[in-house]
Amino acid sequence: MIKNLVFYFLVFSALSACRQTESKSKPEYTLRFGHLANENNIWHKAALKFAEEVFVRSDGRVEVKVYPNEQLGKEMDMITGILGGSMDIMVTAESLENWSLPYAILCATPYAIRDSEHLQKVAGGPIGKEIEAHITEVAGLKPIAWFERGARNLTTNTPIRHPDDLKGLIIRVPNVSLYVATWSALGAKPTPMAFSEVFTSLQQSTIHGQENPLALIRNAGLYEVQKYCNLTEHVKGWAYVVMGNKKFESMPSDLQQIILESANVMQAYEHELYLEQEELDYRFLKEKGMEFIEVDKAAFEKLASEAVMASFTEEQKKLYKRIQEVR
């Protein structure tokens, strides 16, 4: 009898220990992180780095699940999802303009940023902090990191050297009013479209071209349906990794600190990858048969800048001027 009692006691203790271990190993928070790029893109690699850092630094209390390829919806859907609480983190930029965020568009304004050094000073300096505070205050989205993006270039199946060559061409642009206004001023017919629909639309000639950094042109396989990469370099900008501010504020302060520290690691890691990747992407696309066309950049900049000024409010114009004055 005593032996049986001892046996049952040991079994009960073992089961209780297992349950406690399971309970401890289950994360207190599971965060859903979505983006539009594929698994080979440096955004995805940086997001995985963030997930790893958060899990290790929090001793498993926080788990970040990463969803590439618009698995959680198109960019606009993901922003809505964060605001509605169905997801938590995403990579976004100029699309924030659609949430009445007039300053957000400055991170992707045509011909506002001169080069990588200028971008670092703007995004990582006082102006960048102002834009971040504005996004949090107005939209409830907390920027936790920013990623430098390669210059956006126009791809087509006919060489484009001057804005005059754009006449009649249907060009896919993000769902951003400034981009529609800019490409209209340049002579094209811009049409907003989700990035996931671009390849098929180019294949079927529903659209004639699109504009994106080399990394996204490569990762989406657009070299299979576009022959020319026209070096307009019309936008040198950055994207934000944003988290729902309500979710962030609801977490304990020690976990908030871990999120921010991990985001800093992610940002530095992404920048490392970015510097390596730009040259690799250029070479890859060239090997795949894409021809790189030098354009009359002065002509593009003149028309694009006029469209920007016509679209901007007085406050946006002031901030735009301050960005150009950063040295």
Please summarize what this structure is.
This protein has 12 helices and 11 strands.
List keywords for this structure.
single chain; 327 residues; alpha/beta; D-Maltodextrin-Binding Protein, domain 2; five-stranded mixed β-sheet; 18% strand
Explain what this protein looks like in three dimensions.
With 327 residues, this protein is α/β, with parallel strands linked by helices. It folds into 2 domains: 26-149 and 237-280, D-Maltodextrin-Binding Protein, domain 2 (3-Layer(aba) Sandwich), CATH 3.40.190; 152-236 and 285-325, D-Maltodextrin-Binding Protein, domain 2 (3-Layer(aba) Sandwich), CATH 3.40.190.170. Helix content is 49%, strand content 18%. The chain has 12 helices and 11 strands. The strands form 2 sheets. It has a 6-stranded mixed sheet with strand order 7-6-8-5-9-11. Helix 6 links the parallel strand 6 and strand 7 (189-192). Helix 6 packs across helix 11. The chain is globular, with a radius of gyration of 23 Å.
Q: How is the secondary structure organized here?
A:
Elements: H1 2-25, E1 29-34, H2 42-57, E2 62-67, H3 75-84, E3 89-92, H4 116-123, H5 126-139, E4 141-148, E5 152-156, E6 170-173, H6 177-185, E7 189-192, H7 198-203, E8 209-212, H8 214-219, E9 228-235, E10 238-244, H9 245-250, H10 253-287, E11 291-293, H11 297-311, H12 314-325
Parallel strand pairs: 1-2, 1-3, 6-7, 6-8, 9-11
Antiparallel strand pairs: 3-10, 4-10, 5-8, 5-9
Structural domain tally: 2
**How many E strands?**
11
Question: What's the arrangement of strands in the largest beta sheet?
Answer: 7-6-8-5-9-11
Give the DSSP E fraction (strand runs of 2 or more residues): 15-25%
* Overall pLDDT metric: 91
